[in-house]
Specification:
108 residues; mainly alpha; DNA polymerase, domain 1; two-stranded parallel sheet; 2 strands; 46% helix; rod-shaped
Length: 108
């Protein structure tokens, strides 16, 4: 009886292991996002300089950060986050990716 039980266990084991592997995803899903360091909040796009924008925002390098600052200076600042899409090189995907990291201070 004990031998039959062990035989069954060893017979079924490879089937269970193979089944478990087919359920596991082929590639692990990993999303990497830059988050503000501890103690830091979101960045105000009407006051941040180009260096801070490029350092703290996803998909924003020095060139795009400078374009944001230039647009802000030429147009008197941003009144909405969606207005960022009017900056050359900034599209809806970049705005969506950074929406949780940026804000506009409404105080005069």
């Amino acid at each position: 009886m004990c031998r039959q039980f062990l035989f069954l266990v060893f017979l079924i084991m490879p089937v269970l292991v193979a089944g478990a592997e087919s359920v596991a995803p082929d590639k692990p899903v990993l999303r990497v996002m830059k988050l503000p360091a501890s103690g830091e909040g979101r960045v105000d796009i009407n006051t941040a300089d180009a260096r801070e924008l490029s350092r703290r925002l996803n998909g924003i390098g020095e060139k795009k950060a400078k374009a944001i600052v230039d647009y802000r200076n030429a147009n008197g600042g941003f009144r909405s986050l969606d207005q960022l899409e009017q900056v050359k090189g900034i599209g809806p995907a970049i705005v969506k990716k950074n929406r949780h990291l940026i804000y506009i201070d409404a105080r005069p």
